[in-house]
Amino acid sequence: MFKKSLIAVAAASMLTLTACGGTGSAAGNAGTDKITMGFAQVGAESGWRTANTKSVQESAKKAGVDLKFSDAQQKQENQIKAIRSYIQQKVDVIAFSPVVESGWDTVLKEAKTAKIPVILTDRAVDSSDKTLYKTFLGSDFVEEGKKAGAWLVEDSKAASDTVNIVEIQGTTGSAPANDRKEGFEEAIKANPKLKIIASQSGDFTRSGGKQVMEAFLKNNPDIDVVFAHNDDEGLGAIEAIEAAGKVPGKDIKIVTIDAVKDGMTALSNGKINYIVECSPMLGDQLMDLAKKVIAGETVPERVVTEETTFTQEQAKQVLASRPY
Ligand code: GYE
Hints:
Blueprint: H1 2-21, E1 36-41, H2 47-63, E2 66-71, H3 76-88, E3 93-96, H4 105-113, E4 118-121, E5 135-138, H5 141-155, E6 163-169, H6 175-188, E7 194-201, H7 206-219, E8 225-228, H8 231-243, E9 253-258, H9 261-268, E10 274-277, H10 283-294, E11 302-304, E12 309-310, H11 312-318
Parallel strand pairs: 1-2, 1-3, 3-4, 4-5, 5-11, 6-7, 6-8, 8-9, 9-10
Antiparallel strand pairs: 10-12
The structure holds beta-D-fucofuranose (GYE).
Beta-D-fucofuranose binds at residues 45-46, 48-49, 122-123, 139, 176, 204, 230, 232, 257-258, 278.
């Protein structure tokens, strides 16, 4: 009896403490005004991903959001498990970066039934039911692929022979792999001399990029250009090219997407020829959107990140000031 009332007193004082502490929100989550967000991250496959995780964690702290974070190690089943556990924990909002585009409807319906809003971060899903999530924050990957292709069209304007391109794709079935491929193919149509002679997934990792490039080099004696769907794969390709006794950036040109520190360093050193930027700094916008969604405000169904491109000269100028 005595024990019970002690617990009751302790619980009551905790409630008062938290109730006085914050700025108040419409979340109405029992006894605390802090927003709880469950974030199901893809993994830690690339420099981009590491910077993205840091951005989300730092922004959550700044915004006073209680962040529950999980790393799915690039496996959809792990992400689904994480989302289900966030539903069970009754978080206020779920944000996630879907490793692949398809297969999300069931778990997203579960979140909807539990009245927990979902925000897509960085990557899209292919669900036709747009009510399964509130908004999608991230880059336009088709546009990124087009920018990479447009650079190559310009760079190879004077080519008299066929330009043999090998493509190192991102994770099979992921939105950035599908869309970057589509955008790139679309852009290079402008010059019929540009030919993709081989295309394979390097899973957005450095080791994947290296392995795929080793195989490409073995099977194709005459490679002119590598289009890698991210910097890490491009950096892996550089290792394979150098091991084969060729000079990356000269004997074989390289165009990649992301513009993380290591990629920009290789671009400044002449080993990569061009990088299309893809910003991982989505944290602040995500927290902002989450607060609005929880408060019942309308948010745009698509928020596109602003991005640029870098030549070798431009990379040299900005390298020191790159934040990631
Ligand atoms: O380009 C790559 C990462 O989804 C935009 O995922 C992201 C991609 C990014 O692994 O480096």
